[in-house]
Amino acid sequence: MKQTESTVWDRIRTWLGTWSRPALVVGALVSTSFSGGRCLAEDDPFEDLRKRVEQLESENRELRMVKESQQEEVAFDEEPVAFQGSGDEERIGQIVEDYLNKRPSAANPVDMDQEQKISALQHNLTGVMDKLNKKTLPSTQINGIFQTDAGFFSQDANSLATYGNIQDGADFRRTRLSAKGALTETTNYMVQMDFAFFGRPSFTDVWVEQTKIPFLGNVRVGQWKQPFSLEVVSSFRYTTFAERSLLFQAFTPFRHLGAGFYNTNDDQTMTWAASGFTTGQDQYGGSISGSGGWGTAERVTFLPFWDDSTKGDGYLHLGVGHFFNSPPNHVANFRSIPELYIGQNAAGVVGTSGQAAPGAFNGTPFFAQTGNLGIRNYNVLGTELLWVDGPLSVQSEGMVNFVNQSAGILNGAAQTVNFANGNSTAILPGAYAQVGYFLTGEHRPYDRKAGAIDRIIPFHNFGPWNDDGGASGMGAWEVAGRWSYLDLNDKNIRGGTVTDLTAGLNWYLNPFWKMQLNYIHSTPTYTAQAAPAGTPNSPFARSTTNMFDIRCQMDF
Q: Residue 220 in 3-state DSSP?
């Protein structure tokens, strides 16, 4: 046992004699070699080494005292915990070796020229990044979208008699390209063309605006969607169903050429907008009229509830709007399609090439229409509601059209009106209500600056597999239903009524690709005196048309 004890102490003395002083010297070197406060004591491995050596020396002294005080042999079952033999020696040796290899020396001096080059490169890189991040004006962003539909119709006998055979088909509902950007820090612009629908190509949004105007906020000149109705100001990209409600074509101004402004309060809980514009223009924005031909629109929205803790998946939107129109030459026709449109250009003029140019456009007919009416003007009042609670959304709008007519008499093909004395106001109402639910848990986003519906963002984009070969996301899935109603009958006006029930299934593969399936059950009713030729001879001719639509939409 004496030999064992002697061997242990010999190893301790040898190790201490070999490493203690150099280790302390190395610790001193480290403390002076790392300048600028970049190496703290608690992070310095050589400071740890110095403390370790001091601890071993203290333990060595204690063991020596124990050895000298004991009169009999002491059996050591194991070596002291603080000293683990060759393991500690190897660890300490490796730390010192790494330091000596990395520290500057006469054989391996610091390359100051290289450090200067690296510093210059970093400076140049910072300059390049600053230029890339700096907004270059004028700026341009290219956007595009297409929507393609396949539609199928099923009609009862009255529907066939009233509207004829509505044929199945497929078409591009919209195909648009646009350039959008800024001219200066406070001047924005947009130019968009549509190439798909009849009368195309044509202008859709073509405007320029100045921002940061006191109170008015943003002043815009050109053609754009006028500020009236939640369905109008919200992009068709984000609508729940393939088409907007029955109210859209009959009562809203939509796009017109004019000037207006829009703004919001500081916390974006309220928006307001107003505009004045020409009405009745063609697809290129042109409009001429002997009298009338102008209108106004105003809209105010409120956000009485917004759940900041959930990043906007709980809120309540309320809005009111007004649309005034003095139609061109005081002639107006209120009408609406049944929330689905499929059409095709018919053959037109054939030139010497033998190829037919596009002519008349055939497709889904209007299910309700008043025909041309001689009126002075009309005012439409509208209300808006959108409530979102997580994956559940409820949306509704109601509108009432006050038609100011004075027994106007149309003057033949000129379509001008002579007014008799006295006024007569017809009241034409309409409304819709819809509910949607995301089966995958997403919610319907909201643009607080515009008071409009925003883009759906799936939790997980669709993909058949991920990089690891496992199952990937399924996109966002939404089910929805809508009731829509339009009444174009009052006093001498007999445009009929329509009630639509729509069921929808939406699959958002990612934020920019959407697939839609719609089923529309439409039940229009014409009065006998206003029904088109071929309507069954009865006081009220009620018909039923069932429609199915499959849509693919992509935008960027």
A: strand
Residue 468: DSSP 8-state: T
Distances (CA, A) of 396 to 399, 441, 538: 10, 22, 34
The reply to whether omega before 524 is within 30° of 0 (cis) is no
pLDDT tens string 294-334: 999 999 999 999 987 777 899 999 999 999 999 998 999 99
Beta bridge mates, 261: 219, 274
- CA distances 82 to 8, 44, 95, 347, Å, are 13, 20, 18, 98
C-alpha closest to that of 508 among 530, 528, 536, 478: 478
Is residue 277 within 8 Å of residue 515, measured between CB atoms?
Answer: no
* Torsion region of 48: left, alpha or beta (phi above 0 gives left; psi -120 to 50 gives alpha): alpha
Closest of 485, 516, 486, 487 to residue 503, by C-alpha: 516
Q: Please write down the long-range contacts of 535-538, taking CB distance under 8 Å and 24 or more positions apart.
A: 535/158, 535/161, 535/162, 536/157, 536/158, 536/161, 536/162
With a cut of 70, which residues of the chain have pLDDT below it?
1-53, 57, 59-60, 62-115, 117, 128-129, 131-135, 198-200, 406-423, 465-472, 527-540
Compute the distance between CA of residue 246 and CA of residue 499 in angstroms, rounded to an integer.
8
| Alpha-carbon span 474 to 462, nearest angstrom | 4
Distance CA 26, CA 28 (A): 5
Q: Which residues pair with 316 in a beta bridge?
A: 305, 387
- 82 dihedral zone (left: phi>0; alpha: psi -120 to 50; beta): alpha
Kindly provide the residue ranges of all beta strands, DSSP E only, lying in 285-442, ordered along the sequence.
294-306, 314-326, 331-332, 335-336, 343-350, 356-363, 368-369, 373-374, 377-389, 392-405, 409-410, 417-418, 424-438
Instruction: Kindly list the structural domains of the chain, giving each domain's residue range(s) and its CATH number in brackets, ordered by start.
Output: 2-110 (no CATH), 148-173+225-253+262-343+359-555 (2.40.160.10)
- Smallest CA-to-CA distance from 320 within 385, 231, 411, 393 is with 385
